[in-house]
Specification:
468 residues, binds adenosine-5'-diphosphate, alpha+beta
C-alpha cells in the first residue's frame, strides 16, 4: 500500500513539470528554426517560414512575430480562443502584443533576454507557457512570441489517475492473495513446529517435527527432530547418571560404614580380621577417590580446561610398560593373557594422557573378558599415522549400545552389579583425550565374539617433526 501510494504521489507531482519541460523544449526548437529562417532578411515571406509555422500548428501553439516598429509581420494560431495574443491582431497591425503586463514583458524581450514564463489563461483557466525572444538580424530586429498551453496535463492526469486506481486495485488484490498464500505456507509449518516444541518443553519427547515445507523450514524441523532425539537420550543418560553416581557413591559408603561398625563391635581385637576389614574400607575409599578423580578429569577434559603436555616418546616402550604393570598386578591371579605385536615408533603426544587411554582399553578388555581369554595389543605404523588396537575375545558389545559407550557414566550393565573397578567414566575420558589429540578412534565389537578398541595418532604435527 505504501509503495502504491508513493507511486501515485510521484506520478501526480512529477507529471506537471515533465510536461512543462517538454513544451518548453519544443517551443525552443521552433524558436530556433524561426530564428534561422529570419536571420539575414529584412522582409519575411510567408513561404520562408511556412514549414516552421506548420510545426506550430501541429504543436498546439500560437506564435506572433513583430518588427521593430511593433508591426505584426507573421502570425499563426492553432489555439483559437485560448491564445493569449490578441485574436484580432492581423498581419501589418501595429498593435504590439496586447498581453498581460505587456510593457514589462516587451521590455524584457527588447533588452535581449529570453522570456520563459507561465500565465493562466483567462479563457480556459489553464496554465500556458509564454515564450519570447529577440531575433537580431543584420538588417532588422524581430520579436518572436510563442504561446502554448501546458495542456495535455489535465487529461493525462485524469487518464493516469484512472489507470492508477485500476492498477492499484489489481495490485492490492493480488498482494492480499499472495500474502495469504505465503503467510499460510510460512506460518502453518511454524505453528506445527511450535506445537511440537511446546510438547518438548514440557518434557514430552514423543514429538514429530516432520513437515513438508520450503527448505529452510524443513532444515529447522530436521534440526529440531535431531535435537529432540539428543534431548531424549540426554535425559535418559541424566537419569542413568544420577542412578549410577548415587549408587556408586552410596555403595562404598555403606560398605565403609558396615565394616567400620564391624571393627567397632566384632573384630576390634582380632588383628587378622580387623586388618581384613580395614583393607575393605581402604579399597572402598580408594574407589571413591578414583570416582571423584575421574569425574573431575572428565569434566575438565570435556570443558577443554586440561592442556596437553606433548613430548616425543616411543609408543612401543609406553605400551610395554603398561602391560608389565598389568601382568605384575591384576593379571597375577587371572588366566587371561596379553599378547603384543608392537613396532618401535616415536610419537608427538601427551604420554600420560595416551597411557591412560591404552590402560583404559586394556582394563576394559580384562574386565569384560572371560576366564582364559586372550588379549592382543597391536600397533601398526604407517607413513602418516600410528594405529593402536586392543583386541579381546570377550563379551562384546551389542550394536544398539555401541554409540553410547563413549558417553560418561554409561554402563551397559544397569543392574548395578557391583564392580569396584568400574566407574563408567573410562571411555568418556579416553574419548576426550583422543579428541584433544585430534586422533581418530573407534570400536568394532560383536556380542560374545569380542571387541577391538582402536585409535590412530596422526604423524602430521603441524610442522613439528618427530625429531623435535
Ligand atoms: P567402565 O568403568 O564401566 O568400564 P567405560 O567408560 O570404560 O566404563 O566403559 C563403558 C561401558 O562400555 C562399560 O560399562 C562396558 O559395558 C562397555 N565396554 C567397554 N569396553 C568393553 C569391552 N572391551 N568389552 C565389552 N564391553 C566393553
Amino acid at each position: 500500500m505504501a509503495i502504491l501510494l508513493a507511486l501515485g504521489l510521484l506520478q501526480v507531482t512529477l507529471i506537471k513539470p515533465y510536461f512543462r519541460d517538454q513544451r518548453v523544449n519544443s517551443i525552443e526548437l521552433i524558436a530556433s528554426e524561426i530564428t534561422d529562417d529570419l536571420l539575414g532578411k529584412d522582409k519575411l515571406s510567408t513561404a520562408d517560414i511556412e514549414d516552421t509555422f506548420n510545426m506550430i500548428l501541429n504543436n498546439d501553439m500560437c506564435a506572433i512575430i513583430f518588427n521593430d516598429n511593433g508591426r505584426v509581420i507573421y502570425k499563426e494560431d492553432a489555439l483559437g480562443a485560448t491564445c493569449t495574443f490578441d485574436k484580432f491582431t492581423t498581419i501589418d497591425d501595429e498593435s504590439f502584443i496586447p498581453l498581460v503586463e505587456p510593457t514589462k514583458i516587451i521590455e524584457t524581450v527588447k533588452d535581449g533576454n529570453i522570456l520563459n514564463t507561465s500565465i493562466i489563461s483567462d479563457v480556459s483557466d489553464q496554465e500556458m507557457v509564454l515564450y519570447g525572444q529577440k531575433i537580431e538580424g543584420d538588417l532588422a530586429n524581430y520579436y518572436l512570441f510563442i504561446n502554448s498551453p501546458v495542456e495535455p496535463i489535465e487529461s493525462y492526469i485524469e487518464l493516469f489517475t484512472d489507470q492508477y486506481y485500476l492498477i492499484a486495485f489489481a495490485v492490492f488484490v493480488a498482494a492480499i492473495g499472495i500474502s495469504f498464500f505465503l503467510s499460510d505456507r510460512i506460518t502453518s509449518p511454524i505453528v506445527k513446529i511450535k506445537k511440537e516444541a511446546d510438547k518438548l518443553s514440557s518434557g514430552n519427547y514423543d514429538v514429530d517435527f516432520t513437515i513438508d515445507s520450503y527448505s529452510e523450514i524443513n532444515d529447522l524441523a530436521n534440526t529440531l527432530d535431531k535435537t529432540s532425539q539428543v534431548m531424549a537420550t540426554t535425559d535418559e543418560l541424566r537419569q542413568d547418571l544420577i542412578a549410577n553416581v548415587s549408587h556408586d557413591i552410596k555403595t562404598p559408603l555403606t560398605m565403609i560404614k558396615a565394616y567400620s561398625e564391624m571393627i567397632r563391635d566384632i573384630s576390634g581385637d582380632d588383628k587378622e580380621k580387623r586388618d581384613k576389614h580395614l583393607n575393605v574400607i581402604i579399597e572402598e575409599a580408594d574407589y571413591l577417590d578414583r570416582l571423584v578423580d575421574d569425574m573431575r578429569d572428565v569434566s575438565k577434559l570435556q570443558a577443554g580446561q586440561q592442556t596437553l603436555k606433548r613430548t616425543n616418546f616411543d609408543m612401543k616402550e609406553t605400551i610395554e610398560r603398561i602391560i608389565e604393570h598389568y601382568r605384575g598386578g591384576i593379571l597375577k591371579d587371572m588366566s587371561i593373557t596379553i599378547e603384543t605385536e608392537l613396532v618401535s615408533s616415536v610419537v608427538w603426544a601427551d604420554e600420560t594422557a595416551i597411557s591412560r587411554v591404552i590402560s583404559n582399553f586394556l582394563s576394559n578388555a580384562i574386565k569384560y573378558s572371560f576366564a582364559d581369554s586372550k588379549i592382543l595389543v597391536k600397533m601398526t605404523d604407517s607413513e602418516d599415522h600410528l594405529r593402536v588396537e586392543v583386541i579381546d575375545d570377550g563379551k562384546g558389545i551389542s550394536e544398539s549400545e555401541l554409540p553410547y559407550i563413549w558417553t560418561r557414566y554409561y554402563k551397559i550393565d544397569k543392574g548395578f552389579s557391583r564392580n569396584i573397578n568400574s566407574t563408567g567414566l573410562g571411555l568418556a575420558i579416553a574419548k576426550a583425550i583422543l579428541e584433544a589429540h585430534g586422533a581418530k578412534y573407534g570400536v568394532i565389537s560383536k556380542v560374545n565374539v569380542g571387541s577391538t578398541f582402536w585409535f590412530e595418532l596422526s604423524k602430521d604435527y603441524d610442522g613439528l617433526s618427530k625429531g623435535n
